[in-house]
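Input record (one chain):
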Amino acid sequence: MLDAGKLVQLHQLAFTTSTPGLTAEILAGDSPDGPFDAVVGTSQIVGGRGDFTIAGGRHRYYVIWITRFGDSFRNAHIDEVSAN
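The corresponding structure, as predicted from the sequence alone:
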């Protein structure tokens, strides 16, 4: 979970991973306890870097929701995140 510190409209969210092949989407909400029911970045398979276009209004909390690990992995690592 990423805390923007206040309500913000993100346009892009990117992350790198050392466990490529994972599938992720970006969810958002306005409380640290959820719910995170706004899908603001559509699901995609991520190689070494995932680049998500963010839509859906202003939120404070953003979650990188991993829905599937890469074929060769039993876990996932998010190494670095950037957003604007």
